[in-house]
Amino acid sequence: MEEILNDLIALTGFTDQDPQILRDVAAQTAVWQEEVTQVFYNTLYGYKSTAAVFREGERPDRENTLRNWYQIVTAGDIDANFWRWQWFVGLIHIPRGITNPFMLGMMSRVQQLFRAKCLETFDAEQAETVFGAFKRITDIIAGLIAEGYFQSYVQAMERMSGQSRLLIDRMVNLEVEEMVAELRQTPH
Ligand code: HEM
């Protein structure tokens, strides 16, 4: 996970100033928590494919998870443990059928709402600064969840098949080469 986190930090341009920027305005952004939570779950419960992943009576628990997550992010409580937790969310999502497109779609939704709120609340320059910090942090989170999902999926295959990761990677590469060759042969 370390290496992937470092890649995401380097490529998004995240710096330690970003959590500080969020910390400085936490009193103002904390009040958006409820609206973010309701938009999040109204969207998910209002769309057939995502509504189907929830269990009966689960919504209050799920809302609390998101409230807690939003509170931590907007308080700028971003440390090694937080990033590890986000990686772990990818693993938790697998057995519940929560695909990365579901997650990425909702991360986009959260970012758009947060941006609109920034523009309403701050002057243009500060809105850009605050949203920039939020965007970099939540993009890293999305990267960690997506890669955590993928790596955990492959790790589960490695464990159940008893094959080493190295062997799985080699076999996958051979197969992928064939798939690419097949696609190239197909006229389009
Ligand atoms: C912005 C994107 C998302 C973030 C940041 C996020 C974050 C989280 C977090 C922090 C947890 C708790 C992990 C733990 O137990 O410590 C969680 C669990 C869960 N999430 Fe997500 N999530 C996202 C998208 C989604 C979407 C799109 C769905 C549904 C379509 C979803 C459904 C769930 C469910 C059902 C659980 C509970 C899994 C379980 O404990 O059985 N999440 N998520």
Give a topology summary.
Layout: H1 2-12, H2 17-24, H3 26-29, H4 33-45, H5 48-51, H6 59-74, H7 80-93, H8 100-121, H9 124-161, H10 165-185
Helix pairs in contact: 1-9, 2-9, 4-6, 4-8, 7-9, 8-9
Bound molecules: protoporphyrin IX containing FE.
Structural commentary:
- This protein has 188 residues and is an all-alpha fold.
- 18% of the residues are buried.
- α2 packs across α9 and α7 crosses α9.
- It has a single domain, classed as Globin-like (Orthogonal Bundle), CATH 1.10.490.10.
- It has 10 helices and no strands.
- Protoporphyrin IX containing FE binds next to α6, α7 and α8.
Ligand catalogue: protoporphyrin IX containing FE
The structure class reads: mainly alpha
Question: CATH superfamily, please?
Answer: Globins
Radius of gyration: 19 Å
Number of DSSP helices?
10
Quick overview:
The chain has 188 residues and is mainly α. Helix content is 80%, strand content 0%.
Please tag this protein with its features:
188 residues; mainly alpha; Globin-like; binds protoporphyrin IX containing FE
